[in-house]
Amino acid sequence: xTSTSAKLQKANDFILKAEEEEKKKNxxxxxxxxxxxxxxxxxxxxxxxxxxxPKEVLQGKxxxxxxxxxxxxxxxxxxxxxxxxxxxxxxxxxNEDSDNESEDPEKKKxxxxxxxxxxxxxxxxxxxxxxxxxxxxxxxxxxxILPIKFPHLFTGRRKPWKGILLYGPPGTGKSYLAKAVAxxxxxxxxxxxxxxxxxxxxxxxxxxxxxxLFEMGRQHKPSIIFIDEIxxxxxxxxxxxxxxxxxxxxxxxxxxxxxxxxxxGVLVVGATNIPWVLDSGIRRRFEKRIYIPLPEVNxxxxxxxxxxxxxxxxxxxxDFKILAEGTEGFSGADIAVLVxxxxxQPVRKVQTATHFKKVSGKCPTDPTLISYDLxxxxxxxxPEALEMSWIDVPGNKxxxxxxxxxxxxxxMKKAKPTDEKGLVQLSF
Length: 428
What we know:
Keywords: ATP-binding, Endosome, Membrane, Nucleotide-binding. By secondary structure, this protein is an alpha/beta fold.
């Protein structure tokens, strides 16, 4: 099934081709492409984006392209009827934005390139899905949610943060926090960018992409620009680096706090594992810096629960406490990988089993029904054991073994934290 982002990209592609055909005066083909692009936009607003800022943005685009398609349609109809003698082509776009785009087609190309960075499909990660990190969550709410909900609180000298840097060891949840921000800030436009979105092989294009990104952020405010692994773009300036890399950093500095740039309503959030390599000028522009540490014992307990979630298991509260205490130095990502491996243990039991026995349980195809002829792995010494392999078990007759503490203990024997150094707080 086509994802929402793929449909959005498809719609933009159709519109881009339509505009190219219109320039070539292939009006019939332009109309066909406009129509297809509009169909995609209508489908997106009807089924994918039912409310919020993204829907408003798409509706605006849809209205603009529909108006253009109607103009071309009328022109083709008059031409077909033989009444189009004086006009060689349909009237040009009348609005100011269209004039600017026709004057600068290169800018339009860059803007279309960056539109894929707008996160239209909300990640569906809530604050409650992020275990621990209360300080980080409060700071992000203070910077993102409160200014939108209670703008009167932020008047006079009290202003919301314009730059937040999330830093800490790998796997501690920096990017996951950004997903929660994208979900919770429903009225904001969320841009998620990486170095691949902003670095171009063409001379001078990278800094133009940076400039256009911030311009788009100002046009769609309130907006949040999230830059993952920002160190790959904004490391310390040196004599050895290329001129292109230096210009990208300069453009970032100008756009974040340059003269004449009004960034009210635009929040820049950066994430990095190695904050000490960031250029000092860039680092200073992130007014609020939030250290995302390795989880404490209570945080690890919550992470285990979140990762096991609704999987059928026999783990008790005391089991979760033992697991949390036994994973000192593990990041959230390490625990997620550990649980994922442990969840595969019942599957491995099925794969290696030589004997199965008949049991009753919830029907695999319809959990509301009870089946009395299911098969589950057992030891060869079981009185009801039937000698067979998983290949002989019908697809709708397998009852998976329950997930137990023994499964996690087995995976824990080979699990290690990915970054031992993460135990020491970074300072810069």
